[in-house]
Amino acid sequence: KILVTGSLGQIGTELVTKMRGIYGADNVIATDIRDNGSDVVKAGPFEILDVTDAGKMHELASKYKVDTIVHLAALLSATAEKNPLLAWNLNMGGLVNALETARELKCQFFTPSSIGAFGPTTPKDQTPQDTIQRPTTMYGVNKVSGELLCDYYFYKFGVDTRGVRFPGLISYVAEPGGGTTDYAVEIYYEAIRNGRYTSYIGEGTKMDMMYMPDALNAIINLMEADSAKLKHRNAFNITAMSFAPEEIAAEIKKHIPHFEMSYDVDPARQTIADSWPNSIDPTAAMEEWGFKAEYDLEKMTVDMLDKLKTKLK
Ligand code: VAH
Question: How far is the CA of 64 from the centre of ligand 1 (A)?
Answer without folding.
Answer: 31
